[in-house]
Amino acid sequence: MDVSFLGGPQPQRGVGVVAPFDFALDRELWRWVPDEISLHLTRTPFVPVEVSLDLARLVSEHETLGEAVRALGAAEPEVLAYACTSGSFVGGIAGERALCEAMRRSGELPSLTTSGALLEALTELGVHRVALVTPYTRSVTESLEEYLNQAGVEIAGCADLGLTRHIWKVPYREVATMARDALGGAADALFISCTNLPTYDVIPQLEAELRIPVISANQVTMWAALRRLGTRAVGPYQALLDPAARRQWPLPDEGLRPGHGLPELPEGQEGWA
Description:
There is one protein chain. The chain is α/β, with parallel strands linked by helices. It has a single domain (about 10-255), classed as Rossmann fold, CATH 3.40.50.12500. Helices cover about 35% and strands about 15% of the residues. Helix 3 runs parallel beside helix 5 and helix 6 crosses helix 10 (about 215-230). The termini are far apart.
């Protein structure tokens, strides 16, 4: 049979992704990516340690990341992303920058981390006060708070689950409940931490209900990586990905707070019960 008319596969541009060994949300990452982009994923070696500050340090050792980046080189990606929030904030601002530099040296490519992408996203949205949702134990969550404080970001509220394993099994409803719990004080935005915590479908629902930008670890990672390729992440109507989506709220400096002087929801958007 003559199949020459098919012409072969279309050219693809690549994003190389290094994830921790227990990462279980490959499909969620792919949902952010347009058709002309391919993700090339690899994982750090297994270590018998549950989610903790110790694990965050182990999966972000420069030698470990360097080996993963070199393995990705065969697929010829154009940008490298370390998809781990705790592994990239555990060393603070200086540690995150050192991770990027270690990856860049190993792969000779532009490199970023989830925590660095978070700061880029907060800057893009003009956010100075953020509420946090994390699946972590208190000590890991406090490390995230310290990282953000180093960047001049104020923590307006926080809710965490205290999990040390099986984070990818947390249902959307529980994520939404934590988001509401985290908004005890004034916040310009909500950040849902951990690349292993499902968030793709919950973001637009929470934004419609809470009336502030909601960003997540996987979302900011893909958004930042794709920006470096000159393209945009794909996702349902939401503040980070679509500037038009921000126009339903005043800017952070205008003092918008959940429950205070909110405009009506856009037609067809409903909050979660």
